[in-house]
Amino acid sequence: MRFEGTLTQWNDDRGFGFITPTPAGQDIFVHISAFARDGLRPQLNEALSFEVSLNKDGKKQAVLVRRDRPASATSSAAPARARRDIGGAGSESTGLPTRIVVFVIACALLAAAYWHFDRRTQRAAAARAEAAAQSLEAQPQRAPAATAQPLASLYRCDGRQHCSQMTSCSEAKFFLQNCPGTKMDGNGDGVPCEQQWCTHPLAK
Known about the structure:
Layout: E1 2-11, E2 16-21, E3 28-31, E4 47-54, E5 60-67, H1 71-76, H2 80-93, H3 95-137, H4 144-154, H5 169-178
Parallel strand pairs: 3-5
Antiparallel strand pairs: 1-2, 1-4, 2-3, 4-5
């Protein structure tokens, strides 16, 4: 049968003390060996539960002692060195995630810069090609056959069918007018790639 009580006397040097039962009763002798081996020293006035047995002299003593101490009190009794070790490990572990975040941000910035540079290069190339095509189209219409020859030499049907494969509005128009099977004039108004290339005010 288990009883409850409070540790009212304790000699830490000799490892024994006395428990006062609750609600009242004769003090019971308790030895350090009756406590669980959890590294915690018995504390005065802490609540305990225990069983009673007789020692070799026939006197009562507490055995199988259990602590009813709140979790906060147990945590406060943890060794200070263990807390320092935990704190040190935490401070060291925070350094690595920080370096990883900085590295990821740097990589993202480099990727964004490369993407903008690549887009500018593509746009510049497309603008040069379209300017060349427009200059050819702006020539007098006295000799249509002569005008068609430079466009035919600038572009050729190579199997491309979609706007995403074009580099300019002029190229898209050439493919629409000269290459079968193209899929670049969804609304059938004769103007190809209106969402990609032929939206410029100078598009013809």
